[in-house]
Amino acid sequence: MTEPTSTSATYAGAGVDIDAGEEAVDRIRPLVASTLRPEVLGGLGDFGGLFAVDTEKYSQPVLVACTDGVGTKALIAQACGRYDTIGIDLVAMCVDDLVCQGAEPLFFLDYISTGAVDPTQMTELVAGVADGCRQVGAALLGGEMAEHAGVMKPGEFDLVGFAVGVVEREKILGSGRVRDGDILIGLPSPGLRSNGYTLARHVLLERAGLALDAPAWQGATTSVADELLLPSVLYTPAVLSAIADADADVHAVAHITGGGIPGNLPRALPDGLRAVVERGTWAVPQIFAEVQRLGKVEDEEMLRVFNLGLGMVVMVSADGIDVALEALRGGGLDPVVVGRVGPGPRGVDLVGPELWGSGDAR
Q1: How far apart (Å, rounded) are the C-alpha atoms in residues 342 and 275?
Q2: Would you place residue 5 in the very low, low, confident or very high pLDDT band (cuts 50, 70, 90)?
Q3: Rounded distance between C-alpha atoms, residue 153 and residue 220, angstroms
Q4: CA distance 123 to 129
Q5: Which three-class secondary structure state does DSSP give residue 35?
Q6: What distance, in Å, lies between the first and last C-alpha atoms of the chain?
Q7: Using an 8 Å Cβ cutoff, are 356 and 289 in contact?
């Protein structure tokens, strides 16, 4: 028989440090507290987060739930040791899905898996999540840090989020409201947000061999890392402002994530209507041109993988276009009319210049 070792086995010795986990939780308490709303009951440390829905504000409240992650953008953050903004991306990926159905985000939960809990790293990650939650008015209701020793290496992490929002039943947005003649308003994205990073990393770092601290392109004042870690724009507050103004007459919203414009815009269209998007009506950030040039990526592939400078498309009636644009500008965005809805099989036509224009949306 195998003899036992002479020393006592411990969880920490096996790779899980309970003390480090407790220190990390203590550090994030003030971050969580900074996001709380009046509806939150209890506090950090309970087995479940409690949230009392305001039934006076909503006569027929419908809850909307979403979950998402940051994908391989996490690898860029790890390589650079920069963790303070990727939490914003996580919140954006979730709550900007909620608002596509007209929902106000109520609360958010995060899940961080890591090879070894580093309290400083965990605090920076959660600081970004809390920042995103404050920007959209959502409470960071709870979360989990899971130490996966033996599965992930120290320093490695994955970040996943869960968001819950609410919308009045009669105000739910979607394809059923879209009409022939509706106008498409594009909301610019200065970077990749959290989509297409596997291809971007393959082209920029592996095929082209660029260093993360190198200029993003010839003459650029930003580095490759700066461009790849640019935090996502949070569209929700401005879109909610437009939705709240009845004269804006918002019908549907499409979040342009994985799948690009062709893969996401049809999700907000009914059968029998087709979106016509006019290329050249918005600036495509230079980082996309660099990925395409260095990887010799075909136009169709770029369209299917990246947002190419449009992070969201809002569909409004022709009569409401001026009010909607004003509301979106008031929310700090720079909206631009990019097309319209017309008859045809459900899908997207991209018309105009064959080559994407270069520019910088920031």
Answers
A1: 6
A2: low
A3: 34
A4: 10
A5: coil
A6: 68
A7: yes
Write down the pTM of the prediction. 0.93
* Torsion (CA) 122, 64, 339, 287 in degrees, nearest 10: 10
For 30, the enclosing helix (H) or strand (E) is helix 18-33
Work out the angle between the directed axes of helices 236-244 and 119-136 (0-180°, nearest 10).
20
Q: Is the dihedral of CA 240, 98, 313, 201 positive or negative?
A: positive
Q: How far is CA 280 from the centre of its chain?
A: 24
CA distance linking residue 218 with residue 205, whole number of Å: 16
pLDDT of residue 358: 44
What whole-number distance in Å separates Cα of residue 90 and Cα of residue 274?
31
Amino acid in the structure at residue 298: E
pLDDT tens-digit map of 264-276: 999 999 999 999 9
Name the E strands within 36-138.
40-41, 50-51, 61-69, 104-114
Return the closest-CA partner of residue 273 out of 195, 193, 340: 340
Burial class (CB in 10 A: 0-12, 13-18, 19+), 355: exposed
